[in-house]
Amino acid sequence: MSLRVAIVGATGYTGAELVRLCLAHPELEVGPLVGHSKAGLPVEDVLPSLAGLGLGTVQAFDADSVADAADVAFCGLPHGASAGIVSELRDRGLPVLDLSADFRLRDPAVYAEWYGAHLAPERFGEGVYGLSELHREELPGAELIAVPGCNATASILALAPLMKERLVATEGLVCDIKTGVSGAGRVPKASTHFPETGEGTRAYKAAGLHRHTPEIEQELGLLAGEALRLTFVPHLVPMNRGILATCYAMSEGTDAARATEAARALYAGSPSVVVRDPGVHPDTLWVRGSNRAQLSYHHDARAGRLVAFAAIDNLMKGAAGAAVQALNVRQGFPEAAGLGLPATWP
What we know:
The chain is an alpha/beta fold and about 350 residues long. It contains eleven helices and 13 strands. The strands form two sheets. Strands 8-9-7-10-13-12-11 form a seven-stranded mixed sheet. It has a six-stranded parallel sheet with strand order 2-1-3-4-6-5, sandwiched between helices.
């Protein structure tokens, strides 16, 4: 019997990707597609890529209706807007995979520092962090899963093996991100308008201002066994989708071969993470449209630094694909169910 899935926030880029993945999944059935501003419109008018699939109309949110029509819900709403909706669905016993940042952090003081007041404080701390590669044993049966942020996913995957094995220093870490414009969402704004992005590259929210910073620090600190601080700077580049993370750490005598060995040990058996040989430079083109991450490690012996690369698709392994992967683990489905296709090429 198929698992009926509701998608709240179905009309954004991540929501559309969730619909596409669920339609191709052997164990899932697409249930209510919920959207606030587009409620009442035919799905195919809002998401033309889904024309002819008979998905009906976009529904307004009603917690009772969603809970009655679905066995589980994805919630793809913005930070802050998600917490109350998630809480309503959980009050009705519906398991939820939340793609906002509202349940990713463990420390309420850290959340308040970066996001302000939490809108469902009684549920703070309930979420299991949904990066399957690091929290696979916690996901089965979880009632609230906090799907990781896209930039955080790339940075964490690159650095996790180094932190877990203490192969590099925990001080002086730098994460440099290049990200596609779709990560900013579907609502148009000046900073993501094509004439202002098509020919330029810019840093944004630098110097410790980007909200994925505490998420990365939290997860890497858990692996390292100590609190840590890092410099995280994302850059907007003129492409629709994709993230390339370039992370720098003091090598402490670790070379690229040892880092590669540690990464292959940590991600052994993963259907989503591919660790390339030293000297390979992962490209976002190699993962576009897939739920795969490609990693590699390089040693700058002259400067005493290890350089870790991770390439992912921000809408797939950085959002919708990671959510479906976490649901697979939760349900006991094959982890790669519905996610097995390689990247598009070219």
